[in-house]
C-alpha cells in the first residue's frame, strides 16, 4: 500500500525490528501523515539467550534500539510477545524441515506466519488499517481495486522474494515505505542520521535470529542429536562419514570431510540428503544441474495465474538472480516448473517465487527436483 494508493490518514502499526530500515519506514509513514504506532516483536522465550551485539533482529538490544527510535519519531511504542507462536511456526518448522532432509527459509516463514499473519490479525483486531515494515518492495493498487506486489525500484535492495508468500488480503493491509526508494543503503543511513535516529550506523542483520552464535549445524545437533552415517558417491561407494545428515545442504562443497579425492581430482558437492537411511550423496558440480521441479503449497500475491503453462522468471534464493521458466499449476495444488537453462543449488524445502516482469505472481515450496547426471541423463532429486 503506497501513499498514492491510500491518500487518507491511516492507523498504521509499524513493525520495528531495531534496525535502520524499519526505523526509517516508520518515520516516513508518520511524516506522510498517518497515525503510527511502533511495535517490537519479542520472539524468544528466553531473550537473554539471543546473541548480543547487532547481528540479529530480535535481541534485547534491538528492542531498546526500536524504543529509542520510536521516541525520536514521536510515536507510541509497545513490545508484543509472540514467542510461542514464533516457536511453533518458525523454529519447530526449521527443525522439522532439516530433519526431513529439506532446506527451509525461516525468514520467509516468519513473514508468512508472524509478521503478516499473527501480527496483522492482531493489528486488525485492534482497529489498525495497515502493518508497516522496512522491506524493500512495492504494493501497487490497480484500477479494479486489486493489489499487486512488485519488486523494489532498486533491484540491489529488493526483498520481494521473502514476501512472495503474501496473499491478496495481506497485501491490502501492507505498507512498504522504502519500496519506491531508488537510493543506496548509505543514503538511507544518511536519512536516519538526519532524522536523529540512533540506529543510523547499526550494521545490517544477516544471520538467523534464533541461532545465537550463527552455528546452524551446532544448533541443530543440540536438538536432533548426532547420528553417524555414510557419505557416498553416485555409485554408492562410501567415501566418508558424517554425524548427522541434517547438517548438510544441497550444493554444499565445504566441510564434507571426505578422505579420498574424486577420480577426476575435482571438488565434490552434496547432491542428495536421505534422512531415511541417514546417507549423504556427493558428486561433481555438473550433477547439481536441475532441469525441472515440482513445488507444493502455492500462494498467490493477488490474482492467481491463468490456466495452462505460461512463461515467467523465477527466483530460488533470497539473494539469487532470475531465471526463465515455464510453469503450470496442476490440480490447484502442485506447481510444475521447467527451466529454460539448468540451474544449480536447488533444494527441496526452498521457496520458488515466480515473477511476471516486476510483479510477484506467487510462491510455492519445492518438493522434488529433476537433475541431469554428469553424463547427461536425467535423474530425480
UniProtKB/TrEMBL annotation:
Residues where ATP binds: 15-22, 41, 134
Key words of the record: ATP-binding, Cytoplasm, Disulfide bond, Nucleotide-binding, RNA-binding, Transferase, tRNA processing, tRNA-binding
Keyword match Ubl conjugation: no
Main location group: cytoplasm
NCBIfam families named among the record's database cross-references: PRK00143.1 (NF001138), trmU (TIGR00420)
Function of the protein: Catalyzes the 2-thiolation of uridine at the wobble position (U34) of tRNA, leading to the formation of s(2)U34.
Name under which the protein is recorded: tRNA-specific 2-thiouridylase MnmA
Taxonomic classification: Bacteria, Bacillati, Actinomycetota, Actinomycetes, Kitasatosporales
Gene behind this protein: mnmA
Amino acid at each position: 500500500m503506497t501513499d498514492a494508493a491510500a491518500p487518507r490518514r491511516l492507523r498504521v502499526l509499524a513493525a520495528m525490528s531495531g534496525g535502520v530500515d524499519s526505523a526509517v519506514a516508520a518515520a516516513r509513514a508518520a511524516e506522510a501523515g498517518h497515525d503510527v504506532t511502533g511495535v517490537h516483536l519479542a520472539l524468544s522465550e528466553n531473550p537473554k539467550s539471543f546473541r548480543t551485539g547487532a547481528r540479529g533482529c530480535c535481541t534485547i538490544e534491538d528492542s531498546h534500539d526500536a524504543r529509542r527510535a520510536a521516541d525520536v519519531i514521536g510515536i507510541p511504542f509497545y513490545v508484543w510477545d509472540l514467542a510461542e507462536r514464533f516457536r511453533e511456526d518458525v523454529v519447530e518448522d526449521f527443525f522439522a524441515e532439516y530433519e526431513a532432509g529439506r532446506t527451509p527459509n525461516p525468514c520467509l516463514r516468519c513473514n508468512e506466519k508472524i509478521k503478516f499473519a499473527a501480527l496483522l490479525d492482531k493489528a486488525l483486531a485492534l482497529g489498525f488499517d495497515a502493518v508497516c515494515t522496512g522491506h524493500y518492495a512495492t504494493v501497487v493498487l490497480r484500477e479494479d481495486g486489486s493489489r499487486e506486489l512488485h519488486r523494489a525500484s532498486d533491484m540491489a535492495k529488493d526483498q520481494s522474494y521473502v514476501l512472495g508468500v503474501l496473499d491478496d488480503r495481506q497485501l491490502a493491509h501492507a505498507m512498504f515505505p522504502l519500496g519506491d526508494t531508488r537510493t543506496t543503503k548509505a543514503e538511507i543511513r544518511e536519512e536516519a542520521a538526519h532524522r536523529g535516529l540512533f540506529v543510523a550506523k547499526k550494521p545490517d542483520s544477516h544471520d538467523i535470529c534464533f541461532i545465537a552464535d550463527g552455528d546452524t549445524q551446532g544448533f541443530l545437533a543440540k536438538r536432533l542429536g548426532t547420528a553417524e552415517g555414510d557419505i557416498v558417491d553416485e555409485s554408492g561407494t562410501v567415501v566418508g562419514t558424517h554425524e548427522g545428515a541434517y547438517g548438510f545442504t544441497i550444493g554444499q562443497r565445504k566441510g564434507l570431510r571426505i578422505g579420498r579425492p574424486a577420480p577426476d581430482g575435482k571438488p565434490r558437492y552434496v547432491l542428495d540428503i536421505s534422512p531415511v537411511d541417514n546417507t549423504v550423496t556427493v558428486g561433481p558440480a555438473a550433477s547439481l544441474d536441475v532441469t525441472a521441479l515440482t513445488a507444493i503449497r502455492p500462494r498467490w500475491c493477488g490474482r492467481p495465474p491463468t490456466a495452462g503453462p505460461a512463461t515467467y522468471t523465477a527466483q530460488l534464493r533470497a539473494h539469487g538472480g532470475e531465471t526463465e521458466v515455464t510453469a503450470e499449476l496442476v490440480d490447484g495444488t502442485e506447481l510444475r516448473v521447467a527451466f529454460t537453462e539448468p540451474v544449480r543449488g536447488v533444494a527441496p524445502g526452498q521457496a520458488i517465487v515466480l515473477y511476471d516482469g516486476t510483479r510477484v505472481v506467487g510462491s510455492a515450496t519445492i518438493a522434488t527436483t529433476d537433475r541431469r547426471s554428469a553424463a547427461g541423463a536425467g535423474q530425480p532429486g
